[in-house]
């Protein structure tokens, strides 16, 4: 089969599967669950040839489909994968079967609607990663929000409504500004070239003056910063995680957060490279604050799930540092770290879900000595914890190490503080592990805990395989990203040189005169839009 | 060599996997699997040694581990004179300890898990030593840290064991923080992390002005792993682990990783006087500081732990002053006698139902003779009594230390007196005098099985004669050991400057250190055997000092009060005040203000057509007004 066709099939197969669910009677719960699992599994299998045939030595898009969609406004159906999206695409198809499996016994009510939402969500997420048309992207971006909102709001914990509303409103605030920026970009393209288009590839050919990049960058950045989440836009995250059902948390941490970092890589850097270079110092600050702040807050959490939620803020801080440091190591490390975080924090949430299902509590103080009662669980949980704290030999190390060693060349001081984060990472994870798993088994409820069943082992085992695979032989994955990353670095560096040498604008916080850049831009803005091209 | 070199690290890994996965089925047989893999690894190491002895070294890669941009990290090993010695220690002493473990861990429900961890440790340690680049060193470095964590907390149901494991890991992470930065600095300056290339371009490192910084950062890692001041605090607590673990990981091998690292980077350290001075200062201070804490401790394993910290200090004096071969020599002899001491302590605990309090021991010599005799050999070796192994290695360090600076020698000699004293105290209180543990326990005392006493005996032989491989020329030897290592340390020599010390002075120094050791032993003899000097009276007279030493200088309390508590308080403040209060407060405030606006503007939507018409009129007037007057 043509790979481009396969890409489309893979993306929309879950949606088809979701529609089939609508036809299954709601009391056939086992059938619905099995079907949903089968669909996600097939989707994963379909995505494997894509991964295999993806040529990592090419920087451009592969498996492209370009079709007219709404020609009246210049919106097309343009999809494809490059080295930045391929891994995330496959991560999504990989995570989903586990998300379904983890819901097997945890979801008791409205199974039909739940599974429908999950499959619908999968197409939404896959669509985000393949869209190369901004309208298409925005549609998927928003489409994905709806099932997530429902997942938290219907199958969530006691404060689910608050959490769901907060999640949606917060995300919407960012999205709306992004939409405005997309429309501006669309109009601007017409103004300079005479063509109305939302096509990503066309738009990325624009040489946008710094003054306009400045604002467009900010509009996009806000949307993505909330999604990542970057400090201080993170407070929706702990609430959403604590209330979401396990599968919701897994998807949220595993994939949805990556859309923020992915957005920076896909849109902010290539479309607005000058602004990206200009704002980079701001993101170094926010990244490092996020790393330390997230880690410190994790240390003192009493709820395991909240702890993992805050640890995401810390882990994604590393990704942001790597992205804006813009070296081959830091960026590739950033992408690998996105995958790692998907695996390890996804697995952490799965593990938390497993003990929650047994004990109906996530309070650390309610546990202790669980390793005695659940030795198999203890092993898996420990491996995931070690992966999360970046132990060499596991995937976590590859990501963190590449990010830090790459960033050190560019921003040594920030990197020193970021590296300190690895100390606190060990603190909050090992302390939590000790309090939950070690010590005497005193509580009666914990003595009766059953170890993992076959289904649960089947969930953890493949993730552990990938934890070690990426840790020991990361080339399988790094090979796919190299060329695209190099191209991105080139784009931004060229723009930065131009910005500094021709526009005489220096990155934020670096030179005194640069602080006034935003005011300066308005004048330049008028100048350029009048007489460009 | 290429045909078999990979078996050396991979056999223990195989053992770890087998025991990890099939442990439930294997149970006690796990010990046999573990022992066979280490024995195989030792066999190939000896085979490799025969090549290296003939001057054939090996540097080769198996596959590319990490490749990103100009960063190329091969999974490759370097087997040269330096690594082969440590590999011999790791697999040789490691095997003896594995063997001993079969007896010591007999009947423990977690025995398969124990051997899986122990094998994994040997694998990691071999990677650490054999790796031909910094990142592989780091992989081994953190890998042994993980095994240390797992084995210290092996009896995880004990709070103290779980806590000690965590403390070890986190303290080491603090060191690794520095170590990682050292790697980053070297990579960002040279664009490589491979030893061979780093040594080639070492002048570039110096020219960039980062040589000292890089060596010091790497040394921060060494202070963690090798338990030097101020990051030594985890090691005494690490005694919570099974005793063979203390022997293997926390005495013979892992804790010497920092010494190995400095010796591996000998050229870099030799080129930076500041780095040398720092290493020597930390080593000297730690050697004396830790020894003082060993003076008053009543736990047989903890005395040995402080002794290990102190002896590691000596090794750092050695590699710090530029006597790299001497440092490695002491690393080796120490591995023999300290492993023996720990295994002996384990045998004592075995006899006494796991009692570790030396106040409840005494008079064990006639009852557990093999343990006692081997322990005594180790005691003489560590005290620096000729011709036991420790004498030669320690003496060589002290001789070079004197040439570096007489002040270092003075402190080194002081440490030697203290060492002789606390070790003698330990031996006298344990094996001589009367048994103080009560009749019931006395009845129970028995010698350990052969599977434990054979390793003791072999180590005792090594502790007795192991020093002869490095007899200095001064005593008519030809120091084979130093000559063997020469190729590794060759380039560093031109950067090292030792003051000339005459033969006469050298003899005097040697005699002085032996006399000092004898004085230490004699003093302990008077206190604990003869009773001429009453320990109780000494305690009374020096009550202040005693209390401070007994409480280990209150360092743990200080760390608790100055670091842990403030960190927790700060984090809680961040959580409640900053995160929940300010940041989330603002977010929710935005929400509330929006709702408020909604409530206000809702009033406009009255539903009466008249009102809307009025608004339209008002709007038209305003627009007209704007165009007319605006």
Structure, explained:
- The complex is a heterodimer of chains A (533) and B (630).
- Chain A has 533 residues and is mainly alpha-helical.
- Chain A has a domain of 209 residues.
- In chain A, 75% of the residues lie in helices and 3% in strands.
- Chain A contains 21 helices and 2 strands.
- In chain A, α3 runs antiparallel to α4 and α13 packs antiparallel against α19.
- The radius of gyration of chain A is 23 Å and the shape is globular.
- Chain A starts with a helix and ends with a helix.
- Chain B is mainly α and 630 residues long.
- Chain B contains 28 helices and 2 strands.
- The longest helix of chain B has 48 residues.
- The model of chain B has no long low-confidence stretch (mean pLDDT 93).
- The interface between A and B is large, with 58 and 51 residues.
Produce the secondary structure layout.
The complex is a heterodimer of chains A (533) and B (630).
Chain A: H1 3-22, H2 29-53, E1 62-70, E2 75-81, H3 86-102, H4 111-130, H5 134-155, H6 160-193, H7 200-203, H8 210-227, H9 236-243, H10 246-271, H11 273-299, H12 304-325, H13 328-359, H14 370-373, H15 375-388, H16 395-410, H17 412-437, H18 444-447, H19 454-472, H20 475-501, H21 517-531
Antiparallel strand pairs in A: 1-2
Helix pairs in contact in A: 1-2, 1-4, 2-3, 2-4, 3-4, 3-10, 3-13, 4-5, 5-6, 6-8, 6-9, 8-10, 8-11, 8-21, 9-12, 10-11, 10-12, 10-13, 11-12, 11-17, 11-20, 12-13, 12-16, 12-17, 13-15, 13-16, 13-19, 13-20, 15-17, 15-19, 16-17, 16-19
Chain B: H1 2-5, H2 7-26, H3 30-53, E1 58-68, E2 71-79, H4 81-104, H5 111-130, H6 134-152, H7 159-190, H8 195-200, H9 202-207, H10 211-225, H11 234-237, H12 243-252, H13 257-264, H14 266-271, H15 273-296, H16 300-321, H17 324-351, H18 369-383, H19 389-404, H20 406-431, H21 439-444, H22 450-465, H23 480-493, H24 503-530, H25 535-541, H26 543-550, H27 555-602, H28 609-629
Antiparallel strand pairs in B: 1-2
Helix pairs in contact in B: 2-3, 2-5, 3-4, 3-5, 4-5, 4-12, 4-17, 4-22, 5-6, 6-7, 6-12, 7-10, 10-13, 10-15, 12-17, 13-17, 15-16, 15-20, 16-17, 16-19, 16-20, 17-18, 17-19, 17-22, 17-23, 18-20, 18-22, 19-20, 19-24, 20-24
């Amino acid at each position: 089969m043509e790979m481009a066709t396969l890409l489309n099939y893979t993306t929309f197969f879950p949606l088809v599967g979701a529609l089939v669910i609508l036809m299954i009677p709601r009391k056939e719960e086992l059938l619905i669950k099995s079907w949903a699992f089968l669909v996600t599994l097939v989707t994963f299998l379909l995505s494997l040839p894509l991964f295999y045939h993806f040529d990592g030595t090419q920087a451009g898009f592969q498996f492209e489909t370009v079709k007219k969609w709404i020609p009246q406004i210049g919106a097309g159906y343009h999809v494809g994968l490059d080295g930045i999206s391929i891994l995330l695409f496959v991560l999504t198809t990989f995570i989903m079967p586990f998300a379904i499996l983890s819901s097997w016994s945890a979801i008791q009510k409205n199974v039909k609607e739940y599974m429908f939402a999950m499959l619908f969500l999968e197409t939404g997420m896959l669509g985000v990663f393949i869209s190369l048309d901004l309208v298409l992207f925005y549609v998927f971006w928003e489409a994905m929000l709806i099932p997530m909102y429902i997942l938290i709001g219907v199958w969530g914990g006691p404060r689910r409504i608050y959490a769901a509303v907060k999640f949606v409103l917060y995300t919407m605030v960012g999205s709306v500004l992004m939409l405005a920026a997309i429309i501006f970009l669309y109009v601007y393209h017409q103004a300079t070239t005479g063509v109305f288009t939302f096509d990503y590839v066309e738009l990325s050919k624009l040489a946008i003056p710094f003054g306009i990049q400045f604002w467009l960058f900010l509009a996009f950045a806000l949307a993505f910063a909330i999604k990542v989440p970057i400090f201080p836009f993170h407070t929706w995250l702990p609430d959403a995680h604590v209330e979401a059902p396990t599968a919701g948390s897994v998807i949220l941490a595993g994939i949805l957060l990556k859309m923020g970092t992915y957005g920076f890589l896909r849109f902010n850097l290539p479309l607005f490279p000058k602004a990206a270079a200009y704002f980079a110092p701001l993101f170094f600050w926010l990244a490092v604050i996020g790393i330390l702040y997230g880690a410190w807050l994790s240390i003192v959490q009493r709820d395991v799930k909240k702890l993992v939620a805050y640890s995401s803020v810390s882990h994604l801080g590393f990704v942001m540092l790597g992205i804006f440091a813009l070296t081959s190591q830091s960026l590739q490390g950033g992408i690998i770290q996105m995958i790692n975080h998907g695996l390890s924090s996804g697995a952490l949430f799965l593990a938390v879900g497993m003990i929650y299902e047994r004990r109906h509590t996530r309070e650390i103080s309610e546990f202790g000595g669980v390793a005695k009662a659940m030795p198999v669980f203890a092993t898996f949980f420990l491996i995931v914890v070690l992966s999360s704290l970046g132990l060499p030999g596991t995937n976590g190390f590859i990501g963190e190490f590449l990010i830090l060693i790459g960033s050190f060349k560019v921003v040594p001081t920030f990197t020193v503080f970021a590296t300190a984060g690895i100390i606190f990472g060990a603190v909050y994870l090992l302390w939590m592990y000790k309090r939950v798993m070690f010590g005497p088994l005193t509580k009666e409820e914990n003595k009766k805990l059953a170890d993992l069943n076959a289904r649960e082992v089947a969930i953890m085992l493949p993730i552990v395989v990938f934890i070690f695979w990426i840790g020991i032989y990361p080339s399988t994955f790094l090979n796919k990203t190299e060329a695209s990353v190099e191209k991105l670095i080139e784009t931004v560096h060229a723009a930065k040189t131009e910005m500094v040498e021709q526009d005489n604008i220096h990155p934020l916080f670096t030179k005194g005169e640069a602080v006034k850049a935003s005011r300066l831009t308005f004048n330049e803005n008028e100048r350029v839009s009048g007489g460009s091209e | 060599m290429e045909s078999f070199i990979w078996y050396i690290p991979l056999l223990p890994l195989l053992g770890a996997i087998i025991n990890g996965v099939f442990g439930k089925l294997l149970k006690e047989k796990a010990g046999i699997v573990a022992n066979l893999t280490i024995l195989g690894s030792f066999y190939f190491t000896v085979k490799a040694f025969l090549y290296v002895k003939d001057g054939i070294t090996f540097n080769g890669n198996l596959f590319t581990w990490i490749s990103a941009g100009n960063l190329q990290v091969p999974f490759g090993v370097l087997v040269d004179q330096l690594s082969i010695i440590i590999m011999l220690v790791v697999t040789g002493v490691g095997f003896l300890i594995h063997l001993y473990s079969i007896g010591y861990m007999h009947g423990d429900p977690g025995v398969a898990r124990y051997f899986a961890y122990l094998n994994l440790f040997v694998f990691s340690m071999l990677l650490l030593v054999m790796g031909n680049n910094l990142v592989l060193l780091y992989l081994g470095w953190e890998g042994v840290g993980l095994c240390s964590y797992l084995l210290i907390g092996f009896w995880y149901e004990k709070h103290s064991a779980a806590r000690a494991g965590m403390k070890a890991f986190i303290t080491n992470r603090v060191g690794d923080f520095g170590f990682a930065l050292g790697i980053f600095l070297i990579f960002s300056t040279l664009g490589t992390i491979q030893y061979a290339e780093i040594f080639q371009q070492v002048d570039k490192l110096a020219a960039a002005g980062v040589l000292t910084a890089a060596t010091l950062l790497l040394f921060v890692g060494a202070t963690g792993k090798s338990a030097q001041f101020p990051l030594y605090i985890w090691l005494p607590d690490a005694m919570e682990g099974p005793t063979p673990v203390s022997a293997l990981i926390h005495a013979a091998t892992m804790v010497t990783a920092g010494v190995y690292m400095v010796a591996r980077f000998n050229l870099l350290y030799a080129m930076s006087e500041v780095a040398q001075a720092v290493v020597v200062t930390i080593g000297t201070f730690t050697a004396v500081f830790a020894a003082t804490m060993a003076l008053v401790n009543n736990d047989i394993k903890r005395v040995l732990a402080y002794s290990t910290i102190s002896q590691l200090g000596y090794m750092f004096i050695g590699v710090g002053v530029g006597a790299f071969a001497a440092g490695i020599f002491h690393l080796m002899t120490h591995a023999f006698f300290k492993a023996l001491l720990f295994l002996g302590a384990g045998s004592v605990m075995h006899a006494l139902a796991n009692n570790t309090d030396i106040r409840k021991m005494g008079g064990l010599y006639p009852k557990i003779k093999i343990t006692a005799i081997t322990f005594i050999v180790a005691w003489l070796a560590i005290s620096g009594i000729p011709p036991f192994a420790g004498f030669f290695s320690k003496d060589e360090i002290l001789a070079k230390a004197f040439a570096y600076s007489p002040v270092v020698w003075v402190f080194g000699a002081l440490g030697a007196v203290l060492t002789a004293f606390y070790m003698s105290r330990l031996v006298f209180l344990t094996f001589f005098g009367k048994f103080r543990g009560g009749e019931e326990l006395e009845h129970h005392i028995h010698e350990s099985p052969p599977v434990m006493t054979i390793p003791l005996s072999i180590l005792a032989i090594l502790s007795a004669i192991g020093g002869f491989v490095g007899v200095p020329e001064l005593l008519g030897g030809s120091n084979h050991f130093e000559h063997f290592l020469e190729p590794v340390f060759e380039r560093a020599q031109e950067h090292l400057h030792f003051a000339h010390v005459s033969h006469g002075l050298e003899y005097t120094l040697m005699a002085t250190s032996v006399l000092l050791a004898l004085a230490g032993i004699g003093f302990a003899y008077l206190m604990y055997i003869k009773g001429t000097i009453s320990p109780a009276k000494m305690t009374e007279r020096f009550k202040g000092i005693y209390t401070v030493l007994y409480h280990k200088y209150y360092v743990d309390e200080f760390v608790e009060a100055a670091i842990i508590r403030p960190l927790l308080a700060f984090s809680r403040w961040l959580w409640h005040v900053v995160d929940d209060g300010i940041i989330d407060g603002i977010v929710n405030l935005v929400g509330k203000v929006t709702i408020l606006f909604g409530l206000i503007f809702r009033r406009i939507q009255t539903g009466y057509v008249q009102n809307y018409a009025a608004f339209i009129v008002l709007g038209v007037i305003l627009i007209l007004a704007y165009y007319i007057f605006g």
